[in-house]
Amino acid sequence: MAEIVVGISGASGIVLGHRTIQVLTALGHRVHLILSRAALFTAQEEMGSDFATPERFVSALLPEQRDRLTLHKIGDFSASIASGCYPVDGMAIIPCSMGTLAAVAMGLSDNLLRRAADVTLKERRRLVIVPRETPLSEIHLDNMLRLTRMGGIIVPPMPAWYTKPRSLRDVEDFVVGRVLDLLGIDAKLYPRWGVEELPHSNYV
């Protein structure tokens, strides 16, 4: 099983981060979760007050899923994932605000989420970033290009209509599924091109 760091920053689309940890833990993978303060504010706005604290954010997971999740405080630089000597298989920042994107691109490790991303890059591990902003300015695009040249993978949350989504969850699962693909995890959340039937997910 893989061990994945999931960072959730304050951009819109918090449900994508929540779905990512839900699917990873349901599949038996271990997750290190970091929520920024702005992410919790956005979670409350987009998902309701039941998601307004780190503990509430993960409370919907089944007990066995929570056993596979380590919740880290944003300011805890003593956390295992703050060091490159702690082995993980990769990291996703989903969603990623433009502030977090810029900080990671510039090597500004002023909280644990950004430090973990910095570690991921320097250790040559997979860093998948799901930026949420539109339209994109030249500054945003420059930062994405800078991160791509460092080895980061930029995955804008763009739906694929060839999957014939029947619900918003199907659209979300396509984005999450592509992110997990890039981390080397086949969650079977969406149909591959040329596959007729969609294996709709039953993950809790």
How would you characterize the overall build of this protein?
The protein is α/β, with parallel strands linked by helices and 204 residues long. The protein has one domain (3-182): 3-Layer(aba) Sandwich (Rossmann fold), CATH 3.40.50. Helices cover 39% and strands 15% of the residues. It contains eight helices and six strands, in the order E-H-E-H-H-H-E-E-H-H-E-H-E-H. It has helices spanning 14-26, 37-47, 54-58, 63-66, 98-105, 112-122, 138-150, 168-182, and strands spanning 3-8, 30-35, 69-72, 90-96, 126-131, 153-154. Strands 3-2-1-4-5-6 form a six-stranded parallel sheet, sandwiched between helices.
Q: Under the CATH scheme, which architecture would be assigned?
A: 3-Layer(aba) Sandwich
Structural class: alpha/beta
Q: Can you count the helices?
A: 8
Task: Give helix and strand order, one letter per element, not per position.
Answer: EHEHHHEEHHEHEH
